[in-house]
Amino acid sequence: MPIDLALDTDLDLEQLSALFRLLSDKTRLNILLLLSPGEQNVTWLCNELNLPQPTVSHHLGLLRLHNVLDNRRAGKQIFYRINGRIDHDDRAELAIHTDRFVVRIGTAPSQVSTPTIADVTLSP
Fold first, then answer.
1. Residue 79 near residue 71, CB atoms below 8 Å
2. Alpha-carbon span 99 to 84, nearest angstrom
3. Which residues of the chain have pLDDT under 70?
4. Could you tell me if 103 and 96 are in contact, meaning their C-beta atoms sit under 8 angstroms apart?
5. Cα–Cα distance between 57 and 72 in angstroms, integer?
6. C-alpha distances out from residue 32 to 44, 68, 100, 115, Å
């Protein structure tokens, strides 16, 4: 369904462009896909991404700052999970809700680990 972006305010478009800037990083997209089944701790994410803890923590901080992730502390460990603004389903698709838009990210069936932006729709 095509969107008439001319009807949207500059603030709406700024919110959408900020989300695309956030999602334009491969590591952050991988983090979202890794967290789609449920919460995980930072050590597990570092192992899965094969990245050092400061790098993973930096990306987690950005996602948390933009209200994409929530976290909780259990002793010395910090667990991250996708917050309520994101829906995920069994098809490895994430739907990120903003005030006016929904951005859907999915994986191509032939390339399970390659995220692709599927579509942007206007929220009701």
1. yes
2. 13
3. 1-8, 84-92, 99, 106-124
4. yes
5. 14
6. 14, 9, 21, 10
Among residues of the chain, what percentage have pLDDT more than 70? 70
Return left, alpha or beta for 39; rule: phi > 0 is left, psi -120 to 50 is alpha, else beta: beta
% of residues, the chain, pLDDT over 90 = 35
Query: In this structure, which long-range contacts are made by residues 44-52, counting pairs with CB atoms below 8 Å and at least 24 apart in sequence?
Result: 45/80, 51/27
Residue 90 has which token pair? 């069994």
Quick: pLDDT tens for 72-85: 999 999 999 988 66
Of 76, 75, 46, 73, which Cα lies nearest the Cα of 58? 46
- The pTM is what? 0.73
